[in-house]
Amino acid sequence: MNARSLLFLALAACISNSEASAVSFTPRTNCETQLCENTPTTRGCWGAYDLETNYYKTAPDTGKTVEVWLSVQEGICNQNGYERPCMTFNGTMPGPPIIADWGDKLKIHVTNNLESNGTSVHWHGVHLRNSNQWDGVPGVTQCPIAPGERLTYEFKVTQYGTSWYHSHFSLQSSEGLFGPLIFNGPASANYDEDLGALFLQDWSHSPTFVEWEVKQKFGITSSQTTTLVNGTNTFNCTAEPHKNCVGGGKKFEMVFQQGKKYRIRLINVAIDSQFQFSIDGHSLTVISNDFVPIEPYLADSIILNVGQRYDVIVEANAPPGDYWLRGGWVQSCQGVANDHPESATGIVRYNSRSMRDPTSTSSLSAPVSCLDEPQENLVPYLKLDVGSITDTTVEDINVRLTNAAMFQWTINSSSLVLDWGRPTIQQIYDKERIFPTPYNVVEVEKENEEKEEWAVLVIENKAAAFFGGLAHPIHFHGHDFWILAQESHPWDGSSASFQTKNPVRRDTAVLPAHGYLALAFELDNPGAWLVHCHIAWHSSMGLALEFVESENSISTKIVLENL
Ligand SMILES: *[C@@H]1O[C@H](CO)[C@@H](O)[C@H](O)[C@H]1NC(C)=O
Ligand SMILES: *[C@@H]1O[C@H](CO)[C@@H](O)[C@H](O)[C@H]1NC(C)=O
Ligand SMILES: *[C@@H]1O[C@H](CO)[C@@H](O)[C@H](O)[C@H]1NC(C)=O
Ligand SMILES: *[C@@H]1O[C@H](CO)[C@@H](O)[C@H](O)[C@H]1NC(C)=O
Ligand SMILES: *[C@@H]1O[C@H](CO)[C@@H](O)[C@H](O)[C@H]1NC(C)=O
Ligand SMILES: [Cu+2]
Questions:
Q1: Which sequence ranges are marked TM in the entry (predicted)?
Q2: Would you call 225 exposed, middle or buried from its count of C-beta atoms within 10 A (0-12, 13-18, 19+)?
Q3: What is the pLDDT of residues 419-471, one digit of tens each?
């Protein structure tokens, strides 16, 4: 038998094996043969797997475990020349990158070295199949990790692409507790070099917990001070000198080599801002939204809402020189900057020795509304339609004032409040059949193990006046969702116009002002999964619900010793 027919046999084995695993999630194990190598000119390949692999049903099994130790700690951060107290993973913001291959296992030991706060870590967008207990949500999947304690999170990497890990305890992620989460795998366009994560972020000069007090009372004021690009920027204190303004800030810089193609993984980790990313003189080839590879498309700029990711490829094909990279704060969206959007910049250089500020300009105009990238651009590479829908939940979003005159966001009149000492999955384990009302639990049950079943969530933006004019980036835990509809006008209650043929698929999408968002997800991952607005102020003011999915299949036994 020659090498070619051996290859063919191995491929055939993989195919029949993947068909066999179409119903339940099982890794393919006997496809170790390197059939197609991932190189700068063959980025669609991934050994016996590739972009065509249905990663909701199957994944490689590398047999490899990536083990990481993280310390959650307090300190003083100087990201832009202005010192303030902050919280970090291992002393840096962004925290250290966690990088694994598709099919690896991740084992992450988190030690809480904070003085008095609890903590927890969420793996944003990661499906955590059959590992709901490691989703990192205090009050839902765990108790907070107490100061001085350590918790080990463990899960299989069944997706590939770009995300971030962040604290899910109160407002800690906005204090600096986030870092890159990168899973290597195939890509839908070729590139030479992977430059890693590039974070876009708003940043306050006073601690978020101090601002929170103000925010709750007035609902809308107190925006962030400024912006950071990958954790760094300069800040001009001349107008308002302050003893904390000690200097030392610098612009983010990237060096390009003429002719090369670079992959950049954009991530919006803001507390409440939308960004428009661009590089003067260069276009972007967009290859994925969140963890989903898409048909590549060309863009001059890309809009990122909070919690969203876009991977882009930038070709260094401009005349050698220095160029501004822009992460402009979109002023028509959430948060009114005290600073100018134009200060959210970094520098792309073709000569690493250049020290000059770029003189490049941009003719882009900022968006006037707070929406996502147009849906027609975001075509999933792996084409998947919505299947049989067995459950539909409709919820509306509103605001209210509490007796103590504090603002709260509500979902169907209920604002999410959790008891950190009584996580949802512990209640499930204890067979408490009725969940407390403020846990905002929606139960969805897969009825037939043998069949695909889907659930639908329609969220309507029904707040009055000013509040109804805000858009909300809605994030799903434990699932990607298929966007059935995302409209800027009220819902007529009909599903007739729902898009079910390979619609946009991701884990964070905007609920437009005065409009609605209809999402479908497959009931393929039992657990208690949070769904929430990723504007930290809003989720802290209760804009969240939980799906308890297939309650009888949730295996919570393993988690109990860690609760
Ligand atoms: C984080 O810090 C701890 C010590 O506090 C160290 O053991 C560990 O290797 C660091 N982790 C990373 C990912 O750098
Ligand atoms: C967490 O720490 C901040 C100060 O760093 C404090 O304002 C806040 O109340 C603490 N929250 C909890 C729940 O311990
Ligand atoms: C941004 O910072 C992260 C974390 O420090 C680093 O891994 C990454 O390479 C940086 N991004 C770029 C594009 O340089
Ligand atoms: C800083 O701000 C001052 C006054 O607002 C202005 O005169 C000065 O040019 C600014 N410096 C830089 C480097 O932009
Ligand atoms: C939320 O309220 C709407 C309108 O009153 C109702 O139709 C819907 O069933 C409610 N949803 C849930 C999950 O109770
Ligand atoms: Cu919101």
A1: none
A2: middle
A3: 999 999 999 988 888 999 999 999 999 999 899 999 999 999 999 878 888 99
Question: If 0-12 CB within 10 Å is exposed, 13-18 middle and 19+ buried, where does residue 465 land?
Answer: exposed
CA geometry: angle 185, 473, 444, nearest 5 deg: 80
181 shares its domain with 202: no
188: closest CA among 74, 38, 13?
Answer: 38
Nearest to 307 by CA among 372, 217, 355: 372
Q: Is the CB of 25 under 6 A from ligand 2?
A: no
Q: Is 199 found in the same domain as 183?
A: no
Partners of 38 in beta bridges: none
Domain final residue, candidates 187, 202, 224: 187
Choose one of 116, 120, 175, 216 to mutate for the ligand 2 pocket test, by most ligand atoms within 8 angstroms of C-beta. Answer: 116
pTM exceeds 0.90 = yes
Q: From the CB of 180, is ligand 3 less than 6 Å away?
A: yes
Residues 100, 237 within the same domain? no
Which residue matches tokens 């068909």?
Answer: 19
Q: Which helix (H) or strand (E) holds 216?
A: helix 208-218
- pLDDT tens figures, 478-522: 999 999 999 999 999 999 999 999 999 999 999 999 999 999 999
How many domains are contained in the chain? 3
Ranges of residues in the chain with a pLDDT under 50 are: 1-33, 221, 557-563
pLDDT attached to residue 218: 64
Q: Atom 9 in ligand 1: which residue has the minimum CA distance? A: 69
CATH number at residue 174: 2.60.40.420
Ligand 4 neighbourhood includes 241 CB (under 6 angstroms): no
**Ligand 1 centroid to residue 219 C-alpha, Å:** 38
Q: Which of 68, 89, 90, 109 to mutate to test the pocket of ligand 1 (most atoms within 8 A of CB)?
A: 90
Please report the beta strands in 415-515, taking only residues with DSSP state E, as ranges in sequence order: 441-444, 454-461, 472-476, 481-487, 505-506, 508-511
